[in-house]
Design goal:
There is one protein chain. The protein has helices spanning 2-12, 24-39, 47-62, 108-113, 158-169, 187-196, 207-213, 230-243, 256-264, 275-278, 330-336, and strands at residues 68-73, 89-90, 97-106, 119-126, 138-144, 177-181, 199-203, 223-229, 246-251, 285-290, 301-302, 306-315, 320-329. With 341 residues, it is an alpha+beta fold. The strands form 2 sheets. Strands 1, 2, 3, 4, 10, 11, 12 and 13 form an 8-stranded mixed beta sheet that branches. Strands 7-6-8-5-9 form a 5-stranded mixed beta sheet, with helices on both faces. Strand 11 (301-302) and strand 12 (306-315) form a beta hairpin.
Length: 341
């Protein structure tokens, strides 16, 4: 009798779900390949060659990833890209069905000049959950890490956001670190932030890394402000969702022709796009490998053994954040792909 009751009880208790596949761990190979290929051109002054090598390597490795992917954020029409273009099907065609956002090198100019902060990045989410920016190349953004979540509003002034963020983080405005792209369009923003008393960390390129830094411990970055790429905003949203941070954006047409085209395609240019609007659902994946040294990852190192990379891998559903250092044997790199190695 006791045995039967035990069996009945066991049958009535639902078994805990088994861990499902973390495809982000497979995506490391993709960003590693692109980073190594691009890093061979670091400091050589040719950003197109660096980007081309990274695109070739990323596309080559993506073909072997077990997924049925559609590129939503790719090299795009503005780059006249023959590979990794918006709408391209990638992967081996097997499930899962996913939307894909790629940037083989976020910071091609940084790479060409041998400067810090260049990353190779890729983000995945379930099919139909990734925002397609259409003709809108730029957006006005604000991004914060987990502790600042809910404290900022992209439609508020920088001063208002800094005051609220100061309260939330329990630190003076003078100690807040603010990332802003160094562009003439941000002259007034920079002046306002300085007047408010915060510390500005100007970056010349690479606002995906800037957004991620807001959610990275000890980066010294608390918030990102300003107008930057919409594709980069979508990619950053995937990373920040896993890191527990937040990004908001409002589409920013470059001219009246782009505004008219966006409105004709049904885009609301006043709508505040939240993290969940940019990447819906709670099962997205993000991988980044440093091309050059940055705030949270070390760039590619070439040596007698071959190459060493450092990567960041994030999954939103599990809330896991991994940093991975990989050693690549030179002879295996040669065998691995003919795409730029």
């Amino acid at each position: 009798m006791a045995r039967r009751r035990l069996d009945e009880y066991a049958a009535s208790v639902q078994a805990p779900p088994q861990p499902d596949r973390n495809i982000a761990l497979e995506l490391i190979r993709v960003t590693e390949a692109a980073a190594i290929a691009g890093a061979r051109w670091a400091g050589r002054g040719d950003k197109n060659a660096a980007d081309g090598a990274a695109v070739d390597a990323m596309r080559f490795v993506l073909e072997a990833v077990a997924m049925d992917g559609i590129v939503v954020i790719g090299e795009g029409e503005k780059d006249e890209a023959p590979m990794l273009y918006n709408g391209e099907c990638i992967g081996d065609g097997n499930p899962p069905l996913v939307d894909v956002a790629v940037d083989p090198i976020d910071g091609t100019t940084l790479t060409a000049l041998g400067r810090k902060g260049a990353l190779s990045v890729i983000a995945l989410s379930e099919r139909g959950t990734m925002f397609n920016p259409g003709p809108c190349v730029y957006m006005n953004k604000v991004a914060v890490g987990p502790r600042g979540r809910g404290a900022v509003d992209v439609n508020a002034t920088a001063t208002e956001n800094l005051i609220e963020l100061s309260r939330r983080l329990k630190k003076p405005v003078a100690e807040l670190g603010v990332v802003i792209l160094d562009r003439p369009r941000h002259d007034d923003l920079v002046a306002e932030v300085r007047e408010a008393g915060a510390r500005i960390l100007l970056i010349s390129d690479g606002d995906v890394a800037g957004a991620i830094a807001t959610g990275w411990p000890n980066s010294g970055v608390d918030v990102l402000f300003g107008i930057g790429g919409t594709p980069e905003g979508v990619i950053a949203a995937a990373a920040l969702k896993g890191l527990g941070g937040e990004i908001q954006g409002v589409l920013y047409p470059r001219d009246e022709a782009e505004r008219a085209l966006a409105e004709a395609q049904g885009y609301d240019l006043t709508r505040v796009l939240t993290t969940d609007d940019l990447v819906a659902g709670d099962n997205c994946f993000f991988s980044a490998t440093a091309v050059t040294d940055g705030d949270f990852l070390r760039g590619v190192r070439f040596h007698d053994f071959g190459a060493t990379t450092q990567s960041l891998v994030v999954r939103s559903r599990s809330g896991t954040v991994r940093t991975i250092e990989t050693f690549h044997r030179h002879d295996k790199l040669q065998e691995f792909t003919t795409a730029g190695f």
